Amino acid sequence: MVNNVLEGLVEMGSVVGQDDKGERLLVNGEFSLSIVIARCTSTPTGLLRWKPRFDTALLPDITIVVRMDRMNQRPLDYYLFPRIDLAARRLRLAEDNGLGLDAYRFECLDYLYHIAAPVPLSEVA
To answer: For 47-70, how does the pLDDT look when each residue is reduced to its tens digit (9 = 90+)?
Structure first.
């Protein structure tokens, strides 16, 4: 998963490195990313649940939560949580989570790759 994110960022022109411990990705020297894999579990009634575990010591600017499919074989979707909205938050994700959480949900990471892409100063001036 980390390699997929790295490739997607680099394809859009971002420069990606890792922090000293190799636990966070540093994008364009501007912000940090952490990736959390949330495995799918089924309740006794057959409902699907995901419980992402955040490493609060990392303090990434953005945490990518990869919600895995029912068989935990491939990504189902992605949540992009900014640090400010994760302050020591314990999350349990269901199939539908309401706007408070699903506002951060994306089918793919293209949005992240596009907003992370560097833009020359001459283009924004």
So the answer is: 999 999 888 788 899 999 999 999
